[in-house]
Amino acid sequence: xxxxxxxxxxxxxxxxxxxxxxxxxxxxxxxxxxxxxxxxxxxxxxxxxxxxxxxxxxxxxxxxxxxxxxxxxxxxxxxxxxxxxxxxxxxxxxxxxxxxxxxxxxxxxxxxxxxxxxxxxxxxxxxxxxxxxxxxxxxxxxxxxxxxxxxxxxxxxxxxxxxxxxxxxxxxxxxxxxxxxxx
Length: 183
What we know:
Blueprint (H helix, E strand, L loop, with lengths): L1 H23 L3 H17 L1 H8 L5 H12 L5 H12 L6 H16 L1 E8 L5 H15 L3 E8 L6 E6 L2 E6 H12 L2
Parallel strand pairs: 1-2
Antiparallel strand pairs: 1-3, 3-4
Helix pairs in contact: 1-6, 2-6, 4-5
């Protein structure tokens, strides 16, 4: 837990500085898209994550890989920011910085993050329906869905928006019935 707190405290000023730069140059959403892609890559590729976050690997090697991953179309400010993180040995806090930046961007755009866990993969119609329901619950202008699949739910969904959790899963309903029968 304390590692997460330290990571958060170190990552926040970097995320705020990048947000300030992005706002001055009208690049907030462009940086957000790049960071969402980078976040997905860090989540999906343990090999990439281990390489970038490993303190033993030379900075020049990390810079080359990051430039290649970000591509030729990446914004020069963002490339320079990533290179600065490598130079200052702060690249180990990349995940925290990315998450902090995306949180700042959501606040700026009046968007909420809804973490949805479902028994099966959601189709586009279901995703759109959930977005509308979350908008109604949260009074947000937009909703960013982060979905995961958990077959143990049997059916239905669990929606988490901030500190609010809505358990509409079959597993949750069975648990509530069990509790009421035991009373």
